[in-house]
Amino acid sequence: MSSSVPVGSWPAKLPAMQVRMARPTNRLHDITTFYGDLLGLQELHRGEADGWTAVMFGLPGDQYNLEFVAHTDGIDGEAPTRENLLVFYFGSADEQAEVAERLRNAGTPEVELDNPWWERNSACAFLDPDSWHVVLMPTPVMLSQMESGSTNS
Questions:
Q1: Which residue has the higher pLDDT, 15 or 69?
Q2: What are phi and psi of 121, to 5 degrees?
Q3: Where are the alpha helices (DSSP H) in the chain?
Q4: Is 55:43 a contact under the CB 8 Å cutoff?
């Protein structure tokens, strides 16, 4: 699929300045430990209001962030499917291996992914405390590869 919008630019139809992906959790402490301490994402904000607690992490910085919310009455944060993935692409296999080893040493469950494309491309995957799949890829996937059909993610 080709686009007239340069890579890294927002289309004129959606001139957004910031993107936040938010998801619920009943394990806020475990989730913030996993994403902050183990993966190493920077915590940008933590706040409470009206029975809600929110913690935001930068992906990186503050223009793209991942937010986890919890409510005093509880909220279902379990992954709805095994294909709910958060994928981190590294600059090298060594960088991927360093993070993977840190997760293994902390006892984070490592899992196989359903789609064989990930294994063929040297991904490794772990479960976060809510059973969402966090995928570590050794190198970025170039859009030119995807457009030529050489990937199947």
A1: 69
A2: -105, 20
A3: 28-32, 93-105, 116-120, 143-147
A4: yes
pLDDT the model gives residue 18: 84
Q: How many residues does the chain have?
A: 153
**C-beta separation of 83 from 65 below 8 A:** no
Residue 5 has a pLDDT of 53
3-state secondary structure 4-18: CCCCCCCCCCCCCCC
| pLDDT tens-digit series, residues 109-134 | 999 999 999 999 999 999 999 999 99
Structure tokens at 47: 């706040």
With CA atoms as reference, report the closest residue to 8 among 143, 149, 147, 145: 143
Whole-angstrom distance, CA of residue 111 vs CA of residue 118: 12
Q: If phi over 0 gives left and psi between -120 and 50 gives alpha, with beta otherwise, what is residue 3?
A: beta
The owner of tokens 């992490």 is 57
Q: pTM, whole model, 2 decimals?
A: 0.84
